[in-house]
């Protein structure tokens, strides 16, 4: 029998609650770090109380600021770090700092597939060399509320798909920190944040989230498309994200690992 994995969570929203509810075999949820006080002994808003525990792995499910504030400490604390807010790594200094901390402490910085598939074939293709990678993210206008898109168009008045960004992932993921972390994951798996293109679309004709990934290189070419239901807890993310994180956490303690 595999040893039990002591897990910490940073964030207790649409993703964190699903991880807890999954009741995963050989995974012990030790503590959850949240922003505000909660009436639950396992949840704490005090980082010192959270880090008083020993973890084998910590899953970040709380946003870019959580990665900046706590990522390095997790690794130096002796735990692997699973990052969902991969767009935080548009900051190269942060990325380098966490990689260095992981190496120095013999731990892993893990970027789960989360909301996007095909990272396995993309990272495999990168071994032989890639020429181009484009990620297109389409969500209904409500998903772009509270973002820079509101300064570019009247989201409530849109009647047809409207491109609100077209450019390198490093800039797109920085401008839309809650919406296109998947593009940063694809970029790190493939051509990098500066050479991977992301097209961001506010589309009033859809009620789902549609992500398309296209790549060309020495291997040939491939295209991937997903059309996923929207999370009931957060319209900026899809239901698949929480499901994928449950899979990634489960594999920390699994005897059988598929699509590692």
Describe the structure in your own words.
With 260 residues, the protein is an alpha/beta fold. 29% of the residues lie in helices and 25% in strands. The strands form 2 sheets. A 6-stranded parallel beta sheet has the order 3-2-1-4-5-6. Strands 8-9-7-10-11 form a 5-stranded mixed beta sheet. The radius of gyration is 18 Å and the shape is globular. The mean pLDDT is 93.
Features of this protein?
Rossmann fold; 260 residues; Dihydrodipicolinate Reductase, domain 2; 8 helices; 29% helix
Briefly summarize what is shown.
This protein has 260 residues and is an alpha/beta fold.
Report the count of strand segments.
11
The main β sheet shows up as: 6 strands, parallel
Count of the separate structural domains: 2
Order of helices and strands: EHEEHEHEHEHEEHHEEEH
Helix content bin: 25-40%
Structural class: alpha/beta
Give, in spatial order, the strands making up the sheet with the most strands.
3-2-1-4-5-6
Radius of gyration: 18 Å
According to CATH, the homologous superfamily of the largest domain is NAD(P)-binding Rossmann-like Domain
Query: What general form does the structure show?
Result: globular
Number of helices: 8
- Average pLDDT, rounded to a whole number, is 93
> Proportion of β residues?
25-35%
- Please report the distance between the alpha carbons of the first and last residues: 20 Å
The CATH class assignment of the largest domain is Alpha Beta
Spans where pLDDT lies below 50 across 5 or more residues: none
CATH 2nd-level architecture of the largest domain: 3-Layer(aba) Sandwich
**What's the CATH topology label of the largest domain?**
Rossmann fold
